[in-house]
Each structure stands twice: as C-alpha cells, then as structure tokens.
Specification:
The chain has 375 residues and is an alpha+beta fold. The protein has 14 helices and six strands. The protein has two domains: 208 residues; 155 residues, Reverse transcriptase/Diguanylate cyclase domain (Alpha-Beta Plaits). The longest helix has 30 residues.
C-alpha cells in the first residue's frame, strides 16, 4: 500500500520537497512562509485521503470509511483554496474560511443523509440534491482567488501569466473530473501543487522589481520598463503623500509605512490595463499610462483622489500628457512634478501646516538616478 502511494504520487512528493526547500531559503515574511508550509501539508494530506478512498473502493466494502473519506475530499478543495488566499493575499482575514467550514459541515451531514453524495449498493457514487455543491463552492473560491491576485498585481504581462496559469490549473480541477472521472482525482493534488510552485517561482523572479513595502514596482523597474516600452507612454501621473513627515514624527515610522502601503493600494485600485504603479522615491509614486487616451487620464486622477480620500490619508497629484509635442520622459516628469507641487503647496496653505523642507529642483535634464535619489 505504501509503495503504491509513493509510485502514484512521486511527482507530488518531489515538488512538495522542492517547494519546502525553496521556502526555507527565501526572504519572505515568516508568517507567510508558515502559511505556505501549512498549505503544502494540506495538499499532501489530501493526496493520502484520495489514495486511501480509492484503495478501499477497489477492494469493495468499507462503506462508512469511504463516506467519511469522501466528506473529507469534497471539503478539502475549498479549504485549500481559502488557505491559498490566506497565504498570498495581503492582510487576508480568517473570515475567508467561513464558507469552506460551512461547506465542510454540509459534507459531514451528507455522510448520514446523502444530500451531497452517497454510495449505491454496488459501491458506485450517488449524487444527492446538492451533488454539485462542492464544485460550485470550489469554483467560486477559485474565481475569487484569481480576482484578488489580479487586483493586487501591477497588471503587467509577467504577473498576469502565472495568475492565468493558476486559473487554468483550478479550472482543470473542476472540469476534467467530469471528462476523465475518478482517474483525474489521482492527479488533482499534483496539479494543484505544480500550479502553486510555478506561481511561487514567477513571484520570486519578480521580487527584484517590486517594492517590498507597498507591492508597487520599484525605481529599477520604472527605468527598465521605460527603456523597453518608453515609446508607448502617453501620460505620466505623479503622486506624493501629504503629511508623511508629521506622521512619522508623531506616530512612528510603522504608521508612515502603513500609510504608504495604503496609498499604493489606492493607486492599484484606480488603474487598469496599460496603467502601472511604481514607487520611485520615499513617498513618491509614478503611474505610467501606456496607449491611454488623453481624456481618460483625468478620470484616473479623479479615481485616485477618491480612493485616497476614502482611505483617510492624503496625497498631491500631478500629471502630464505626451501630446502632439511628443515630450520626453524627463519633460513629462518635470511638468507633472510642477502640477503636483502646486497642489501640495495649496494643501499645506489650506491646512496651515508646516510642510517638509527641501523643495526639489527642476527635473528636466537631471540624471534619472540622481533625480530619484534626491528623495
């Protein structure tokens, strides 16, 4: 029996071990690493349940044991997807497990009532009135996971590819059982762990381009991306947090960091395809718009201001359109900077606050690295 399990799940075992080793040597926060460990353990345990269930089915009898194992199997997928959300989503709360727990309770009830599943006299599967509920719940969880990952991404191709791969893996787990029957159940856990590992590897490859505090792309990415696709840029939006120095001085740098992370979240909520958020300085962000019509840029700015106002923080915003003059990146940065600082001066004048010292000089003609280091 043990040998049979190892043979059937050898790929799962190898990838799980590689996953654990990779997690142990990366610089992720320990709580996120621990959640990933728990997720890997859950997938591994599910593979054991699946193996034992079909092992007993092949030998006939064991009706109650099989029903219990089926309840665990049907309950496991939504719980595992909830674990993925808990491990990958920024600041995910435990409420995400509530629907999965309710679903698990219904599966336990089904052991005695057959409302979701049951076994015929010959040992074959019977679907109850709620027979497709496990697939519906797992599908809704999977759709929500993909939505969350997309929304917290920077909408770049290199981030969309692994999210799409993960979506296809989950879709296959919901669709292929109806095509291949129980045979697919033997490879379901391997499919999930491969998808997670691929997503993890892509995420690691992206870390050098991301700001760890806010999740926005960093200054390095700003210049690298502009070298590759600078000709596609039609507008630049600059945003600078208001009152960061006072926040740091009065409530500590942790509060300031929380404010910057909240602002980045507001910016990501406001942008769509072909619009990318970069953190280019201490409290300065640049939103690059590629092939975005001029009339849409003002709408993005208004949505940014609305999101930030709802967050309880404040920022000043300026923007520049490439226009018919075909302005350079430096010219657009300088123009957006002037607009942003005019708004910032008005903010501090209206609020009668002492703004931070050290007004930055004009940007036009500055070296890009020096310009951002002036922060």
């Amino acid at each position: 029996m043990i040998v049979d399990y190892i043979v059937q799940n050898w790929a799962l075992i190898l990838i799980s071990v590689a996953f654990v080793i990779s997690l142990s040597v990366t610089g992720f926060q320990q709580k996120n690493v621990d959640r990933m460990y728990a997720l890997i353990a859950s997938v591994f345990l599910l593979s054991l349940v699946v193996f034992v269930e079909f092992y007993l089915a092949d030998r006939g009898g064991y009706r109650m044991a099989r029903l219990v194992l089926m309840a665990v199997r049907y309950s496991a997928t939504p719980i595992i997807v909830a674990q993925i959300l808990y491990a990958l989503r920024e600041k995910q709360k435990l409420w995400v497990f509530i629907p999965a727990v309710i679903h698990a309770a219904l599966n336990v009830v089904s052991i005695f009532t057959g409302i979701i599943f049951g076994l015929a006299e010959d040992g074959s599967l019977l679907r109850g009135p709620l027979g497709y509920l496990p697939y519906i719940v797992a599908g809704l969880y999977g759709a929500y996971l993909i939505y969350v990952l997309y929304m917290q991404s920077n909408k770049l191709y290199t981030e969309i590819v692994p999210i799409t791969f993960l979506a296809l893996a989950f879709a296959s787990g919901l669709i292929l059982p109806f095509i291949f029957g129980k045979e697919f159940s033997h490879i379901f856990c391997t499919t999930i762990i491969i998808a997670l590992y691929v997503y993890y590897v892509f995420s690691i490859l992206q870390t050098y381009k991301k700001d760890p505090l806010t999740g926005a792309l960093n200054r390095r990415a700003f210049y690298e991306d502009n070298e590759i696709s600078g000709s596609d840029i039609t507008a630049l939006i600059l945003a600078d947090m208001n009152g960061l120095k006072k926040l740091n001085d009065t409530q500590g740098h942790a509060a300031g960091d929380a404010g910057l992370a909240a602002l980045a979240h507001c910016f990501r909520k406001a942008v769509k395809n072909r619009q990318t958020v970069y953190r280019t300085g201490g409290d300065e962000f640049v939103i690059v718009c590629r092939r975005v019509p001029d009339e849409k840029v003002a709408d993005i700015v208004e949505q940014i201001k609305k999101n930030v106002a709802e967050s309880g923080y404040s920022c000043s915003v300026g923007y520049s359109l490439k226009g018919k003059e075909d302005k350079t990146i430096n010219e657009m940065l300088a123009e957006a900077d002037e607009m942003m600082y005019a708004e910032k001066e008005k903010f501090y004048a209206d609020s009668k606050r002492d703004r931070r010292r050290g007004r930055r000089g004009p940007r036009t003609g500055e070296d890009p690295e020096n310009r951002m280091n002036n922060e």
